[in-house]
Amino acid sequence: MYSQNTAVGKIIDAKTSKPISGVDIFINEKDKPALTTTSGNFTVQSDTVIYKLRFLRKNYSLETIDVTSENASNIFVKLAQEKVSSIQEVVIHNEKPKYKNKKENPAYAIMQKVWERKRNNGLDKFDTYTYKEYEKIQFDANNLDSAFMKRKIFNKLEFIFDYKDSTANGKLGLPVFLNEAVYENYGENRPSKRNKKLLVAQKTSGFQDNQIITLTAKNLYRDINIYDNTLNYFDIGFPSPVGETGFSTYDYNLTDTISIRGEEAFKIRYQPKRTEVLAFQGYLYIDTDSYAVLGATLKSTQKINVNFINGISTELEYDNPDENTFLPRKVITEIEMTPFSKKKTAKSIVAKRTVDYSEYQFNKPLEEKIFKRKEEEYEDNFVDKDDAYWVKARPDSLSKSEQGVYEMLDKLQQTPKFNRIVKLYETLASGYYHIGNAIDLGPIFSVYGKNEVEGDRIRIGARTYFTRNDPWRLQFYTAYGFKDHQVKYGAEARYMFNRVNRFTIGAGTRRDILQLGVQLTNDDGIMARTFASSTIFARGENASLSSLNQTNVFTSIEPWKNFQIRLDGTMQSIKSANPSGFNLMYYKNGDLRKTTNDSHFTLSLIARPGAKFSQTGLDRTEHGTLAPTIVLKYTRGVEGLFGSDFNYNKLQFLFYKPILIGSWGKLMLNFEAGKNFDTVPLALQNVIPGNQSYSLAQNTFAQLNYYEFVADTYTTLHLEHHFNGKILSFIPLIKKLKLREIAFIRGAYGTLSDASKAINVEGFKYSAPSEHIYYEYGFGIENIGFGNLRIFRVDFNWRGNYLDRPDISTFGVKAGFQVNF
């Protein structure tokens, strides 16, 4: 992490070999010394890449050292004494090339050739392909010192420091986690396009059962293509130095011609024009004949504005089999993480991922069975391999410190204090407290809530949890309101028969107070999140709560990867939980009724192309990706079934997708549409989601009251763009706060028939946004906090129209916590 932004070394007298102090050290071409040494050892740092150091001391000759990633942490300088009479005047110039325009820059001509001959991943060229992938992820605790090691938290854990190692800055590093994985990749481009990535071996240092920690490691990394205009790190867009838009972000300088694996290559140094932007610095190695990228180094600036991250460094190696394609050889990425401080001396975790690609084979016939998912591939022991396998599978043998990780973690697993620390982390990350290797208590963050009907509300829940890949699960909760003095409950059982197609059945029931109308495309699951207790602070009184008795049975299957078919059967009765403040009464055959009895079936088609999951059991944890969510639902109400009052048909559609917009940030797009084809009472109607709380609620309308708009037919669109500080970084002083800006606009359109109004006792109160598209707009500030802990967000919302309605709010402020990079 210190390579080429930090240089560390020692200076001695060439004749006596004694350390020398009082030496002026100049970085690159600068004419002012960055440091005057006080001992024979030195450490210099820079906001930009250090590619050269010059050492000057009275009565000694000037010495110049080229700095590379290989020698940056261990530079050895010998200064030769010089007679005073022979010393010439030393003038240090700033020799950084200056060009009137980019066309005068020789690096620009080279990059133009790269763009003209832009290469694609060679895997797309062949009819079929196979290759092997070895991945190693290691976490090291960094910047440790003797005072840190003597803290009470390490009582009875002192033995872990027997595995420590020295780092480049003279501090200590301690390996704490190691994960190795081997994948076999199969692909077919013609006649049909399909691929399969099979995990065939995995070895994790003591954390096989602690999936939260392993998932954290996997979630840090994304696959990147250096030829793309935007590189994805943490689902944040960084401009690529090889992208066609690179010259708008970076300065390029042709520094040398060198040999890379026997091929002549241009060495081009690049660095961002503005250090406040999300960008990299480093070197590009471009083949002098084919203008292919042979390799690249990417390193973040010291002012990187990413939460919990102090630095990123990536090294890329490519093979170029022909003039149109490239193949990845090796990718090494290091990420330095700290929870609080941005200082380089802060205690941190360095996460290093190395991926080696090998054994490429092309146009080899692949049997049909290769692409079929098999039951044994999902078994827990499928990836268990002995030591002999790993010795052969590794491209390079493990270092001494890496070998020590397995030994150390095996010892730690037998230490109660360590297991308590791990359990605390897993409890906070998952929201459940695991007891007895069988039961999870939680979610712990839903224990307390408050609303108008129940007053203070306490909720206690639990679920079975034996392993991360359980094929069955029982789950329940009970809640009590201190104002209505009523006990609520919910329970559900699920069982998965097959890990391949995930054929599952389940059933559950609940009796609870809910805030309906806060989701359009909702989940029929019994244990889905309820909004009854989510509004502790709100604008105005929320009396529109419903009392729900519901029983649900379902079955689901995934006939294709990331495509789910689900069928639900639901029987429910709904009535107002606060009849004096919220009326759900309706007319049925001339009779006035207060309870809506409903039985319906729902067929859901759910597609998540590109989504990645860790576990193979009933409940899976999803990796962070930019995968879209596509849902199509058909609901059929059946009158007379278990006393149901209505026949009706409903169709709904949802599309959600996060989209990287180059270096301008990330757009969150959410589109929904739906239609009730029959007349139903308010309890079964589509409600445009409002939000009367002061907290953030995704895909709701901040300035709408609950039940303000009701629609037979509706469409909604939410656009929320996160600029990642792109604009605020131009403002002096403000940019030092590292705040990030958000802009958003939301719209809804719908219609409500006269029959749907007439069926409700107070139907005259309800309408749809049919005259105009209802819209809201505003901006937000996120990344509020200090150091690396910036998890607070504030939104400022304006209501665009329908301003003549009573009891509305035209402007509002929402706030909340969001934990992301």
Fold and architecture overview:
The protein has 7 helices and 43 strands. Mean pLDDT is 83; it is low at 84-95 and 166-170. The longest helix is centred in the middle third of the chain and has 15 residues, at 416-430. A hairpin with a 7-residue loop joins strand 27 and strand 28 (504-514). The protein starts with 5 loop residues before the first strand and ends with a strand. The chain has an 18-stranded antiparallel beta sheet that branches. Strands 8, 9, 10, 11, 12, 15, 16, 17, 18, 19, 20 and 21 form a 12-stranded mixed beta sheet that branches. The chain folds into 3 domains: 6-79, Immunoglobulin-like, CATH 2.60.40.1120; 107-412, no CATH class; 431-817, Porin. The protein is mainly beta and 821 residues long.
Compact description:
The chain is mostly beta strands and 821 residues long.
Overall mean pLDDT stands at 83
Overall strand count: 43
Q: What profile does the largest beta sheet have?
A: 18 strands, antiparallel
Please state the CA-atom Rg, rounded to the nearest Å. 31 Å
| Dominant shape | globular
Total domains, how many?
3
* CATH-scheme architecture of the largest domain: Beta Barrel
CATH topology of the largest domain: Porin
Low-confidence stretches: 84-95, 166-170
- Estimate the helix proportion, in percent: under 10%
* CATH top-level class of the largest domain: Mainly Beta
Classification by helices and strands: mainly beta
Number of helices: 7
Distance between the termini: 19 Å
- Kindly report the name of the CATH homologous superfamily of the largest domain: membrane protein fhac: a member of the omp85/tpsb transporter family
Query: Approximately how much beta-strand content do the residues carry?
Result: 35-45%
Protein name: Membrane protein
Organism: Chryseobacterium hagamense
